[in-house]
Amino acid sequence: MTSYDPEFEEMAREFRRQIAEEQAELEEIERESDLQSIDLPFALLESQWRGDSLRVVCGSRAFVGQVTHVGDNIVTLSTETGAVTDICLDAVHAIAITTPGRGNGVPRREKDPVRFVARLREFVGIPNAIFEFGTNDDAPVVIGRLAEIRADHILVLTRDNARWMLPVTHIAYCVRVPTGR
């Protein structure tokens, strides 16, 4: 035969209430932890999937376009005019979502490079391809053909036959200049 003990029943209710509160607190901590673990490349990948249009600021330059690629330290934007800009995330000062996407984004392609320098390697020696290289400070941009990538710099040949050596660590972005420019 079971006897009813009101004091024991009250202790059991209090214990269940405390467990529920602690469980809710643990779930909130877990949600916050999940949000805190989202790094910039993953946040940009979410923008790519959604089809967001972004404004990416590097020094005094800003680039606006839809995210078409994200890697460990690279984001690629495509504009409505057809220009494509690869930006080194290490050189980014700020990013704004200018137009939220509606789920019409670009799927991730495994063949795209993970690192900014790997993207530059893809451009070496492409005949008649002209690129604009810039830094995140007030240095002038260099426009020309990417001739070589060396240990720590690239060699760019400009239309006036100058041979520019640009340290890779200072390159903030590379714009693929549409032909005819």
Note the main attributes of this structure.
single chain; 181 residues; alpha+beta; ten-stranded antiparallel beta sheet; 3 helices; 10 strands; 28% helix; elongated
Give a quick account of the main beta sheet: strands, pairing sense, barrel closure.
10 strands, antiparallel
Radius of gyration from CA coordinates: 26 Å
Distance between the termini: 94 Å
Low-confidence stretches: none
Give the overall average pLDDT.
87
Query: Count of helical segments?
Result: 3
Strand order of the largest sheet: 5-1-2-3-4-10-6-7-8-9
Give the topology string: H per helix, E per strand: HHEEEEEHEEEEE
Q: Count all strands and give the number.
A: 10
Helix content: 25-40%
Fraction in beta strands: 25-35%
Helical/strand content category: alpha+beta
Described by the principal axes of the CA atoms, the overall outline is elongated
Would you mind describing this structure in some detail?
The structure is a single chain. This protein is of the alpha+beta class and 181 residues long. It is 28% helix and 33% strand. The protein is built from 3 helices and 10 strands. Strands 5-1-2-3-4-10-6-7-8-9 form a 10-stranded antiparallel β-sheet. The radius of gyration is 26 Å and the shape is elongated. The N and C termini lie far apart (94 Å).
What is the strand and helix layout of this fold?
Layout: H1 6-36, H2 40-50, E1 53-58, E2 61-70, E3 74-78, E4 84-88, E5 94-99, H3 116-123, E6 130-134, E7 142-149, E8 153-157, E9 163-167, E10 173-177
Antiparallel strand pairs: 1-2, 1-5, 2-3, 3-4, 4-10, 6-7, 6-10, 7-8, 8-9
